[in-house]
Amino acid sequence: MKRSKRKGPFFSNCLDNFKRNTTITKFFNNKNLKIYNGYTFNSFIISKKSFYFKLGSFVPTRKTFRFKNH
Fold it and tell me: What is the distance between the alpha carbons of residues 26 and 68, in angstroms, rounded to a whole number?
């Protein structure tokens, strides 16, 4: 058995969250979460479609690239 299966998923109960590896469960249903991306807190509301995903998949950490206009 792999170590990750033995340990199980990581759950955090706080609503202002610095940990992007937290798994979304039914506990977070219809709650507004603020997740830190390294610069600011981004907020969003959890729906049923986002259960069992990680919080980091909804918060981008890099800016989108744009070409400079000369």
Answer: 44
Going from the C-alpha of 27 to that of each of 31, 37, 41, 50, 63, the distances in angstroms are 9, 22, 21, 12, 31
Rounded to an integer, what is the distance from CA 59 to the centroid of its chain? Answer: 6
Q: How many residues does the chain have?
A: 70
Q: Give the separation between CA 10 and CA 43, rounded to whole angstroms.
A: 20
Q: What is the pTM of this model?
A: 0.60
- Is 9 or 51 the better-scoring residue by pLDDT? 51
Q: What is the CA radius of gyration of the chain?
A: 15
